[in-house]
Automatic annotation (TrEMBL):
This is Hydantoin racemase. It comes from Nocardia macrotermitis. It comes from the Bacteria. InterPro entries: Iso_Racemase_Enz_sf.
Length: 202
């Protein structure tokens, strides 16, 4: 059994933490267990500014610094905040595999701040040449827990990204249940794919 320690990128209430934990339980393949904890009150309550990103990075890194006995440490965030040296977050694991498989990759995010950081990370991972950009959905934080609303916004964005040449689109929020549509680019749930790929390393 491989154990993953995960930390939310923002401070969430117990109801939202439980929802995210159930999501991991449902998506984790055989041989993988995920322990998800809240980043705590020092973390921002949403990612809406550069200061929020820095605070998130610091809070997640602090939580990881005390986690021992786990096979992987992976933030519950597609932006890979606070990933310890030598480890890989879900975005890195997923985008590297998509590029290796020959995909032209794009993404959707809730806001422009997240879009800019995701783009920066993809380039940092050496995958910029295969990355076609991000469609910003302009959604409030409440949409993260509202799958129907998120997926409705994403469907229209997929048409534009497909027209740009994208063959795979990363859903830029790890806490959203995405719908896999027929036709068009592959819609990538970063949590599901990262867990599957990490399970393959067992």
């Amino acid at each position: 059994m491989r154990r993953i320690f995960s930390v939310t990128p923002i401070h969430v209430d117990q109801e939202e933490l439980d929802r995210r934990r159930r999501r991991y339980d449902e998506l984790a393949p055989a041989g993988i267990t995920v322990e998800l904890v809240d980043a705590g009150p020092s973390a921002p309550t949403q990612l809406a500014s550069a200061d929020d990103l820095r605070a998130s990075e610091k809070a997640v890194a602090a939580a990881f610094a005390t986690a021992e006995g786990y096979d992987f440490r992976m933030p519950d965030c597609v932006l890979d905040p606070g990933v310890p040296a030598g480890d890989r977050g879900m975005l890195q694991v997923v985008v590297e595999r998509l590029v290796a498989d020959g995909h032209r990759v794009a993404a959707v995010t809730r806001n422009q701040v997240i879009a800019d950081e995701l783009t920066r990370k993809v380039r940092e991972y050496g995958c910029g040449d295969a990355f076609l950009g991000v469609a910003v959905l302009d959604l409030e934080l409440s949409a993260v827990a509202d799958g129907a609303r998120w997926n409705a916004a994403m469907r229209s964005a997929l048409e534009d990204l497909s027209a740009r040449g994208a063959t795979a689109v990363i859903n830029g929020c790890s806490a959203v249940d995405v719908e896999h549509t027929e036709g068009g680019p592959l819609v990538v749930d970063p949590v599901a794919d990262a867990l599957r790929l990490l399970a393959g390393q067992a």
